[in-house]
Amino acid sequence: MRKLTALALGATLLFFSTSSKAPRDGWEPLLDKKLSKWETFLSYRHELGYKGKVPTDAQGKEIAPIGYGKNEANVFSVRMEKGEPVLRISGEIYGCVFTKQDFTNYALKLKVKWGEKKWVPRLNEPRDSGILYNSQGECGVDYWHSWMLSQEFQVSEFEKGNAMGDFWCIANSTADITATQNETKDGMKYNPDAAPVTFGRGGPGFCQASANYGVPAGQWDELELIHVNGQSIHIVNGKVVLAVNNSGYVENGQRLPLTHGKIQLQSEAAEVYYKGIMIKPLDAMPAEYAKYFNNKPTR
Q1: Does the structure show a pLDDT above 80 at 15?
Q2: What does pTM read for this prediction?
Q3: Cβ(240)–Cβ(223) below 8 Å
Q4: Contact (CB, 8 A) for 146 and 96
Q5: Nearest to residue 245, comparing CAs of 171, 195, 183, 172?
Q6: DSSP 156
Q7: Which domains does the chain have, with CATH numbers?
Q8: Facing residues of 159 across strands?
Q9: Cβ atoms of residues 70 and 39 within 8 Å
Q10: Which of 106, 120, 171, 189 is the most exposed place for a label (fewest CB within 10 A)?
Q11: pLDDT tens-digit map of 207-251
């Protein structure tokens, strides 16, 4: 009887031990101290004057990127703070960490803050990083030869037309966003009451968020991405700043759906920290966000 009681007690303790590590309310942690759910890619130390071409050596031969599974200069590192893993991305070399898993319909949340260091070629530019979602294919197909085909939830300082939650088409991606003309950047800014505009596919590649809700440098911004069936909501510190519809990509002149993929975090010439990276599956777009999508004709 004592043996059975001990076994039962052991089983109970094991249950609670494993349950304490289980996702809470459906949220699954993606970050641990070993980056066990992520892989890495490093491309190049880009120099001033970069124009989108692969760097070449003295003989004019293209230089190969540093590549997958490399961590030159310790660009990616995790430290524990009060028992919580914190990812540091130095930004010294362009590249990314990306999830091993492919995700379809989900809510993603995380916290981000800036470090002090900046690197060539963005010493005089706002600090920049990004959450790249619906990421598919190989790294290096974009302008900077560093990332996968994807959509970008931009992580940026509020300066020169940049804000947390801006949108970029990465590589040959495309999407529809309700937007109006703006004086900064590529000229478009998210407006939920405007007509949809097609981004990418020969149109503008950038859309500024509706407003800046970022916190001062050195503090943690709380970001959330809601993605369901090619529709995405960018949320900054609890405020919706942009809605992306009809996520896709262009291949041989044809628009195809881009509704699932891996998640990348960029290394882009600025020191940045991420923590609290959590993901939760969704069956449908939450009702509170469905209102941001309608059937206005695209222009």
Answers
A1: no
A2: 0.90
A3: no
A4: yes
A5: 195
A6: E
A7: 26-290 (2.60.120.560)
A8: 162
A9: no
A10: 120
A11: 999 999 999 988 999 999 999 999 999 999 999 999 999 999 999
